[in-house]
Specification:
The chain is an alpha+beta fold. The chain is built from four helices and 19 strands. The chain folds into three domains: about 100 residues, Immunoglobulin-like (Sandwich); about 100 residues, no CATH class; about 80 residues. Helices cover about 20% and strands about 35% of the residues. The protein has a five-stranded mixed beta sheet. A four-stranded antiparallel beta sheet has the order 12-15-14-19, with no helix packed on it.
Length: about 300
């Protein structure tokens, strides 16, 4: 899937063809041609961000439309349809993502192109490379159990009377911003917390409970916290991402064998595909070597 940075117009192109009686197709100019663009919403619906009924003609049956920045004002997943009427009537469709160009990537685009021996001036594969990088990063986060770069997360936890531990799923746990009860009241954490950052466990000092019996009717809390491996991508993650990218790129290009000296393959937890063993070893070494993977007090 193509990915484009926020703040950049996006060009979408299409062709219009007419089916002939002999089974072949011919490029034709339609009666009308309309591009409709929608943005996926958190509630499962879509929001129409642009409708364009006068695309630019590049020749018979060839058209493109530059979607303006004003209609791509939010990051997220966009879908579109080209609808033609009259001659060559039909519908074609596609989708793309808009991402924040300031988000930290596990593998910067230039590093990725260096690993693939693609000159910086050649941009034809940039969208494909960005999609691979995003996939690798998603796998890394499933493998490690949380964000690679520190990120604010919010999770709901079910509580019992006199409970002394609140678990969170995103790890490593860096800090806790606030804990709100279901009724909206804040739990006082100003005295500090005992954090097991590797296990994602939050405790009060001296084993004191978070709740008294009077909270039993409102057992849910919303925990806002920071999780991640730091403010910069650990070097081993960057190198592992390069190794995986080269392997995936060779597969995409139709290679019948892995690059020379690629070594053995393995499928680590969190990955739905095999990766070179060297990349897995780098990731495993990083998990064991991060200095703050221990119990801390804040």
């Amino acid at each position: 899937m193509s990915r484009f940075p926020l703040g950049q117009p996006v060009r979408q192109s299409t062709t219009v063809r007419q089916l002939n009686t002999d089974g072949t197709t011919t490029l034709v100019n339609p009666g009308t041609l309309t591009l409709l663009v929608k943005l996926a919403q958190a509630d499962g619906t879509t929001l129409t961000t642009g409708t364009y009924s006068s695309p630019t003609s590049d020749g018979t049956g060839l058209y493109h439309q530059d979607i303006p920045v004003t209609d791509l004002a939010a990051t997220g997943h966009y879908q579109y349809t080209w609808t033609s009427t009259g001659t060559g009537a039909g519908v074609s469709f596609g989708e793309f993502d808009i991402f924040d160009p300031f988000e930290t990537s596990v593998l910067p685009l230039q590093d990725a192109k260096d690993a693939l021996n693609i000159p910086a001036s050649v941009t034809t594969s940039d969208s494909d490379i960005a999609a691979y990088i995003a996939t690798i990063e998603t796998c890394f986060e499933r493998y490690t159990g949380g964000p690679i770069i520190n990120r604010t997360c919010t999770e709901r936890s079910e509580m019992m009377s006199n409970q002394t531990v609140i678990p969170v799923r995103q790890r490593p746990l860096v800090s806790v911003t606030q804990i709100l009860s279901a009724s909206g009241g804040a739990i006082d954490i100003s005295a500090g917390l005992d954090l097991d950052v590797n296990a994602g466990l939050i405790r009060r000092f001296l084993g004191l409970p978070f709740y008294g019996p009077f909270f039993v009717w409102l057992p849910q809390v919303n925990v806002t916290f920071v999780a991640g491996w730091g403010t910069a991508v650990p070097a081993a993650f960057n190198i592992a991402a390069r190794i995986i990218l080269v392997h995936l790129w060779a597969t995409r290009r139709g290679a019948t064998a892995l690059p020379m000296n690629a070594g053995e393959m393995t499928t680590p937890p969190g990955f739905s595909f095999a990766i070179p063993l060297a990349a897995a070893e780098l990731l495993n070494g990083s998990l064991n070597g991060i200095p703050f993977l221990a119990e801390t007090y804040v």
